[in-house]
Amino acid sequence: MQPEAARALGIIQGHSDAFKGVRVTQFLGLTSATDHTAETQLEGWKEMNAESHKMYNDSPRGQQAPVNSCTMPSKLTAANTDHAADQKKLARGTSDWKIESERIVRKGQEAKTGRAEDLMELLINENVKKLDSMGGLAAFDALSSEEQATRNKVMVEQVSACVGQKSFDAMSPEQQRAANLFIWAGCCMHKELNAVKGGDVSMKTFWIAAGLIPLVKLMNIDNTWAAASRSSTAKTNVESVSQGGGTKLTSLAGAIFNHKDEKKGQADTYCIFFEWELGYMISFPDTSNTRYGSHCLAAPELLVHRELYIKLLAQVWFLWLSYSSLSLNVTLLGP
User: Fold this and answer.
1) Is 74 part of any domain?
2) When you count CB atoms within 10 A of the terminal residue's CB, does the N or C end of the chain come out lower?
3) Are 72 and 14 in contact (CB under 8 A)?
4) Would you say residue 75 lies in a domain?
5) pLDDT tens-digit profile of 46-67?
6) Is residue 262 situated within a structural domain?
7) Could you tell me the CA-to-CA distances from 299 to 67, 234, 314 in Å, in that order?
């Protein structure tokens, strides 16, 4: 391994004292779990952590300054996921992993100042428990060398956690809180979406309850012709399914000025027009696609540049020789 790679891997583990305190941000890569269970995802993190530590510790630099594989998880302080149940469970599992690793790392720090006799006593007691749980020394000797090593490793980790826990218990509440700190932050996009949708419904309800002039129905051509027909039934049906209001307007504007299909709408004309008028190019908020927050961005955009949008649609009208139902509805921005 090149020295730079070894150094970077050491930084990943949060163990930078061997590299004169230089800290940089490193990327562990993108991996996919075989399923969406929290257990599988957490195990994937643990395997990645173990592999990266082994790679570093096998390097020449790692041989000189090895790093405990619990170092990185002991420093975890936050996770940002969505609100899915498996992600919440994964965050809880990660927090438990962080606390467990912190105690093991703390044991290593405690071992530097603690009495060797105390540590040996704990180790002997834990070894006795291990043998008793297996049915005696003969049962342990019958295991393969790999299985014996695995069980011994588990025993040592339990001793480490015990020593680390004693050291933790001796700390002040403030220090304990800092050591255990793990913050889970859920994605807010669905909450914001619900808030916007709820606000939209509330505004429409208020409009009716206050007895204000009804919202203009922004109909397409077919519904416009049906509403103008002599059939009262057709007119009633069309008006019941047609929508109006700010959200409908921002949707129509997105279909004209930034359609998700590049072959439709007036996106190129829009960009050229606004670059000429403003001196720089802009892009209309992507309401034509499912983009969280796009309607909230489109509303002030239409209000701030209302006159320019009306001017643009008037110019497009000369090109089309007649208004489409989309452009006519959006032109209702005018007085």
Assistant:
1) no
2) C
3) yes
4) no
5) 999 999 889 989 999 889 988 8
6) yes
7) 54, 32, 20
> Six-digit token pair at 239?
């008006």
Distances in whole angstroms, Cα of residue 10 to Cα of each of 4, 5, 24, 57: 10, 8, 10, 9
Q: Which helix (H) or strand (E) holds 186?
A: strand 183-186
User: Which residue has tokens 């163990």?
Assistant: 15
**Enclosing domain of residue 48:** 1-69
Tell whether 4 and 100 lie within a shared domain: no
Instruction: Give the span between the Cα atoms of 284 and 265, in whole angstroms.
Output: 12
Burial 47-69 (b: 16+ CB within 10 A, else e): eebeebbeebbebebbeeeebbb
Express each pLDDT in 119-164 by its tens digit.
677 777 778 888 888 888 888 888 888 888 888 888 877 777 777 7
- Residues 180, 96: Cα–Cα separation, whole Å: 9
Nearby residues of 97 by Cβ (< 8 Å), 6 or more positions away: 42, 45, 46, 73, 76
To the nearest 10 degrees (0 to 180), the angle between helices 85-111 and 173-180 is 120
What one-character DSSP code corresponds to residue 18? Answer: G
Does residue 57 contact residue 67 with C-beta atoms inside 8 Å? yes
DSSP assignments along 249-282, one per residue: HHHHHHHHHS-SSTTSSSHHHHHHHHHHHHSS--
In whole angstroms, give the CA distance from residue 305 to residue 204. 24
